[in-house]
Amino acid sequence: MWIRRPTDSEIARRLAAREVGFSHREVGATRSREAPRGYRHDVREFAIGQGRPVFERACDALFAWRHFDVPWLELLGGDRPAEPGQVVATLTRVVGLWFLNPCRVVYVEPLSAGAAEAAFAYGTLPGHAVSGEERFSVRLDSETGLVTYRLEAFSRPARIAPRLGGPLLRRIQRRFAESSAEALRAASRGNAAQGVVAVGPRDPLHRGAPATGSGRE
Questions:
Q1: Which pLDDT tens digit goes with each residue over 137-146?
Q2: Is residue 178 part of a domain?
Q3: Looking at the 3D structure of the chain, how many domains does it have?
Q4: Per-residue pLDDT reduced to its tens digit, 92-138
Q5: Is 154 strand, coil or helix?
Q6: Closest CA to 124 of 137, 134, 110
Q7: Which uninterrupted H or E stretch holds 49?
Q8: Is the pLDDT of residue 198 over 80?
Q9: Are 87 and 125 contacting, i.e. CB atoms less than 8 angstroms apart?
Q10: Does some domain include residue 170?
Q11: Is the pLDDT assigned to residue 16 strictly greater than 90?
C-alpha cells in the first residue's frame, strides 16, 4: 500500500511479474467450485439481460475486461483479451491509501459453438491485499433465456494488510461485485463508455460513486 499513487515504474514492475508465484497454493481451485479450507467463499450472481445476442455480447465484454470499467478503480494490463498467464493489476484508493493489487490469469474457458457458459479466473500475486482466486463467468439459461454474471471467489486477508480484513474488506468486495455487474450489463447493451475510467479522488466506500446492481447472494 502507498500513501501516494504508485509511480509508473512501480506499476510496471508489478505487471512484469509473469514468473512470480501465486500468493496461494490452491491454484485453479475455482474450477471445482469448492472453496479450499481456511478461506472465505463468496458467490454473487447478477442478471445481465435476456437472449443469446446479449449473452454473446456479455461474453465478448467479459474477455475484454469490460467488467472492470468501474469509476473508482483502474485496471492495468487489461489492454488485450484475457489469456492464461496474463498479469493485470487493479489500482484504487481506500481511506486515503493507494492499493495496487496484482493478479495473473489462471485459466480461460472460452465460448464455444452452442455453449451456455464462458469464464476465466485469476489468482492473486504477492502484494495483493488478499490471497486467493476469483472466477468470472457469464451464463445463458437455455429455458428462460436469462443471462447472468457470476463471481465466485475464495480469499483471505494477506499479511500486508491484516487489519483491512473483516467488515471493511467485505464491503469493498461487495461494492466491486455490484459495480462490475453494472459495467458488464452496460457493455452488453453496447452503450457503455469505451475503455477503463481512470481513478479519481473517490474511493469505493464513498456512496457517491456510481455502483448499483441487482445481485443475488
A1: 999 999 999 9
A2: yes
A3: 1
A4: 988 778 889 999 999 999 998 889 999 999 999 998 888 999 999 99
A5: strand
A6: 134
A7: strand 40-50
A8: no
A9: yes
A10: yes
A11: no
The rounded percent of the chain whose pLDDT value lies above 70 is 82
What's this model's pTM, rounded to 2 decimal places? 0.83
Answer yes or no: are the C-beta atoms of 129 and 160 closer than 8 Å: yes
Strands 117-124 and 130-140: antiparallel
- Residue 133: how many other CB atoms lie within 10 Å: 27
| pLDDT confidence of residue 166 | 63
Half-sphere exposure of 203 (CA within 13 A, CB side): 14
> CB–CB of 140/116 below 8 Å?
yes
CA–CA gap between residue 54 and residue 58 (Å, rounded): 6
Nearest to 103 by CA among 168, 184, 182, 158: 158
Domain enclosing residue 186, as ranges: 8-22+37-202
Averaged pLDDT score across all residues of the chain: 84
Inter-axis angle of helices 167-189 and 52-63, nearest 10: 120
Phi, psi dihedrals of residue 125, rounded to the nearest 5°: -110, 165
What CATH code is carried by the domain that includes residue 50?
A: 3.30.530.20
78 close to 89: Cβ distance less than 8 angstroms:
no
Q: Residue 36 pLDDT more than 80?
A: yes
* Residue at 118 is within a domain: yes
CA 157 to CA 197: how far, in whole Å?
Answer: 27
